[in-house]
Specification:
By secondary structure, the chain is of the alpha+beta class. The protein has helices spanning 4-11, 85-98, 126-138, and strands spanning 42-44, 50-58, 64-68, 73-77, 105-109, 115-120. Helices cover 25% and strands 24% of the residues. The chain is globular.
């Protein structure tokens, strides 16, 4: 007849000794959609347009590109964050910096957030737009 201690050893679950368990869902699928996709705040979108990830900083004295990081382009906006005033000023300012028509710059995501995605409806490469933004940030 088997002893009780042997029975408990067989039934006990193995103990997890390593760090955190891998996450399931959206967090596991994060990253570029394609292995060759360009990483950075400015990426090409379909139809000859370009998307720019923006970190908005409303309520500044004057509109300016503050920094360009791998995640987003920091833009100080000279408008309060109420009733879409900052969003309109952001599109107006980016059209001036990128030397395109105001109607070619549209807010795609982030109407009520500081993290926004702006779509530039002009046939320019992401590198050209990124270069203009970096030039404005350094001046």
């Amino acid at each position: 007849m088997p002893s009780l201690s042997r029975f408990l050893r067989v039934q006990a679950a193995p103990v997890w000794s390593g760090g955190a368990m891998p996450r399931k869902g959206k967090a596991a699928a994060k990253g570029p959609a394609e292995p060759g996709a360009a990483a950075g705040p400015v990426v090409a979108a379909g139809g000859g347009s370009v998307r720019v990830a923006v970190r908005a900083k409303p309520g500044a004295r004057c509109s300016a590109v503050t920094d360009v990081t791998t995640e987003a382009v920091g833009v100080a906006i000279a408008a309060p964050p109420s009733e879409g005033e900052a969003n309109a000023e952001l599109c107006r300012y980016l059209s001036k910096v990128l030397e395109v028509k105001k109607s070619d710059v549209t807010l795609e995501k982030g109407g009520k957030s500081r993290d926004k995605v702006v779509k530039i409806l002009v046939s320019a490469t992401p590198d050209e737009i990124l270069e203009k933004l970096k030039k404005e940030a350094s001046s």
